[in-house]
Amino acid sequence: MITQDIQEILLSEDQIAERCRELAAQIQADYLARGSIPVVVGLLKGSVPFMAELMKRFTMPVEVAFMKVSSYQGTKSVGDVRIDMDMDLSTVDRDVLLVEDIVDTGRTLKAVKQMFRNKGAQGVQVVALLDKPDRRVVDIEADYVGFEVPNEFVVGFGLDYNQRYRNLPYIGILKPEVYEQGE
Ligand SMILES: O=P(O)(O)OC[C@H]1O[C@H](OP(=O)(O)OP(=O)(O)O)[C@H](O)[C@@H]1O
Ligand code: HPA
Ligand SMILES: [Mg+2]
């Protein structure tokens, strides 16, 4: 079972759910204060559980879209961000709320934010469930962060290692021997 590959549970289902409630309340208050209806954009695939947990807590009107970009293979960053699947609605002159599972080196976020600005979005805000600041190589921060995590490879609640472990309901540290074997 995949649970045998987890060294330690960092964030439980309950902790994640509670933090998502707090984040949703804070984000909603900020958009309502600005009188703005955001396009909430989930970055596939990692954001799916977080997006679901967050969006069901909004009572304000929002529009929802998904897109897929890729910047990783295994645990190593490969630099460039590629668009694998684009959105089905326009974000021109709209406020975009980007939903990310993790900000690690920051390369994905920086490139995606720039892309939305180039395409004419009015504003781009970011909510990330996890922030791993020790790994940052570009100067970028999410506007809303669920939890700061240590410099360990984490999986679960959407986060994968080679496409596995996304289905775990919590966030755990992957045993290093799992990815050391795979390299
Ligand atoms: O800050 P960075 O170093 O750029 O890394 C973070 C990004 O990498 C992962 O995506 P991945 O490309 O693995 O896609 P996935 O969501 O389908 O797993 C993660 O979901 C973030 O989008
Ligand atoms: O720690 C991580 N886990 C899974 N995917 C990731 N992408 C960047 N960092 C991570
Ligand atoms: Mg991934």
UniProtKB/TrEMBL annotation:
Designated name of the protein: Hypoxanthine phosphoribosyltransferase
InterPro entries to which the protein is assigned, alphabetical: HGPRT (IPR050408), Hxn_phspho_trans (IPR005904), PRTase-like (IPR029057), PRTase_dom (IPR000836)
Cofactor: Mg(2+)
Cellular component GO terms, alphabetical: cytosol
Subcellular location: Cytoplasm
Catalytic reactions of this protein: GMP + diphosphate = guanine + 5-phospho-alpha-D-ribose 1-diphosphate; IMP + diphosphate = hypoxanthine + 5-phospho-alpha-D-ribose 1-diphosphate
Pathway involvement of the protein, from the record: Purine metabolism; GMP biosynthesis via salvage pathway; GMP from guanine: step 1/1; Purine metabolism; IMP biosynthesis via salvage pathway; IMP from hypoxanthine: step 1/1
Pfam families: Pribosyltran (PF00156)
Gene3D superfamilies for this protein: 3.40.50.2020
Highest rank taxon of the organism: Bacteria
Family to which this protein belongs: Belongs to the purine/pyrimidine phosphoribosyltransferase family.
EC number(s) reported in the record: 2.4.2.8
Ranges where the Phosphoribosyltransferase domain occurs: 10-161
Enzyme kind, highest EC tier: transferase
Record-linked PANTHER family: HYPOXANTHINE PHOSPHORIBOSYLTRANSFERASE (PTHR43340:SF1), HYPOXANTHINE-GUANINE PHOSPHORIBOSYLTRANSFERASE (PTHR43340)
Keywords (A to Z) from UniProt: Cytoplasm, Glycosyltransferase, Magnesium, Metal-binding, Nucleotide-binding, Purine salvage, Transferase
